[in-house]
Amino acid sequence: MPTATAAAHPNLAFVKYWGRRDADLNIPENGSISVNLSGATTTTTVTYDEVLGQDAVTLNDVVANTPTLTRVSAHLDRVRALAGITTRARVVSHNDFPADVGFASSASAFAALSLAATRAAGLDLDLYDLSILARKGSGSACRSIPDGFVEWLPGWDDASSYARSLAPCNHWDLRVVTVVLPGRPKLISSLAGHRAAPTSPFYRARLKEMPHTLDLVRQALLARDFASFGLAVEREAWSLHAVAMTSHSEGAPWLSGIFYMEPATVRLIRAVQLWRRDGLPVAFTLDAGPSVHLLCEGSSLGAVLAAVPSAVAGTAPQAIVSRPGRGAWLVNENDGAEAPSFSSTTL
Ligand code: DP6
Questions:
Q1: Whether pLDDT at 231 is above 60
Q2: Rg (CA), the chain
Q3: C-beta 287 within 6 A of ligand 1
Q4: Whole-model pTM?
Q5: Taking 90 as the threshold, does the pLDDT of residue 337 lie above it?
Q6: What mean pLDDT comes out for the span 151-167?
Q7: d(CA 28, CA 87)
Q8: Distances (CA, A) of 269 to 106, 146, 238, 262, 302
Q9: Ligand 1 in contact with 106 (CB < 6 A)?
């Protein structure tokens, strides 16, 4: 039976994808810049099997629910159409990191699935085609295909919207400390957040500013200029949250705006700004959830890890430390050791 196993890291955006031009094809309104997170990995095996009447999917040893099965099957249909086959597949996927820690696990999931499903079907797609395929499963998944620091060029149609590497993993010894802060169950999914974004009066302003933001972050990253990089990345996170807080979500007419932070989130990000004033080179970014991603260079990692507990007193947060990670890769039975393993620190 044709089978292949692939792995991928989730990624963290420094300039964020928020709002879609085409919701079916996941064409974003704006470009984004990210890094793959070495501290977390999804590993997925796809096996095409003639005896199957429909696709069978397990995630972390649990049979997938219907919405997940439907989404994975739709992605396998894209691969089957490319390969000219109709055989159903068995998909077995494992995350080595807990759910809801603040990583977009759909990114690593659809990146690993795209690589495993195409290889098992006998296809050998290049990074461009693989990134386009992954994007259709989950927008941000296209950024987990290339190595290291990555830019997603928004494009305007299927062929022009893809991600490419800006710089390899060893370009910059940047570290991401994801401080996992528990939240309430999400009131509004990021899918609904994307949909609601254009209702914010600040959305057009964000998009107008975007070419400048992308230039600032790209240049600072390429020059390894941490001070400029940190400020630009923080301002960009505020911009996304300003849009979210002033968006109206169709499904929740009682909600005046979308707010993802918890009290511990606010305490920590205020502390980060004071640490920086006092000479510690550190910055933060936030996604659509309460966890805070701290950014620093390797030389400041010890000081950053030592500082966090004082800012989140009363909670005992877990931290996941990542370096810039490689793009999606094939796992051979003999080289499983290549997959870096997840490690979480209690601060
Ligand atoms: C705030 O992960 O919800 O993390 O990738 O299409 O599944 P898909 O969308 P989703 O969007 C990511 C939102 C974000 C910003 C980012 O990662 O760019």
A1: yes
A2: 20
A3: yes
A4: 0.95
A5: no
A6: 98
A7: 32
A8: 26, 30, 11, 11, 18
A9: yes
**Residue 99's pLDDT is what?**
81
Nearest CA to ligand 1 atom 7: 138
User: What are the residues facing 281 on neighbouring strands?
Assistant: none
Kind and range of the H or E run holding 235 = helix 226-245
Quick check: CB of 104 below 6 Å from ligand 1? Answer: yes
Each domain of the chain, given as residue ranges in start order, spans 1-171
The interaxial angle of helices 105-120 and 66-83, nearest 10 deg, is 40
Is the shortest distance between the CB of 39 and ligand 1 below 6 Å? no
- Which own/partner contact pairs does 163-169 have at CB distance under 8 Å and 24+ positions apart? 163/131, 163/135, 164/127, 164/128, 164/131, 165/127, 165/327, 166/33, 166/218, 166/221, 166/222, 167/221, 167/222, 168/324, 169/36, 169/38, 169/323, 169/324, 169/325, 169/326
CATH architecture, domain 1-171: 2-Layer Sandwich (3.30)
Residue nearest to atom 17 of ligand 1 (CA): 13
* Residue minimizing CA distance to atom 1 of ligand 1: 287
Q: For residue 345, is pLDDT > 80?
A: no
Q: What is residue 94's three-state secondary structure?
A: strand
Distance from C-alpha of 162 to C-alpha of 40, rounded to nearest angstrom = 23
Whether pLDDT at 328 is above 90: yes
User: Helix, strand, coil: what percent of the chain each, to 5?
Assistant: 40, 25, 35
Closest by CA position to 163, among listed 184, 179, 141: 141
**Is 26 a pocket residue for ligand 1 (Cβ < 6 Å)?**
yes
Is residue 18 pLDDT above 60, yes or no?
yes
Q: Which of 32, 190, 245 to mutate to test the pocket of ligand 1 (most atoms within 8 A of CB)?
A: 190
Residue type, 106: S
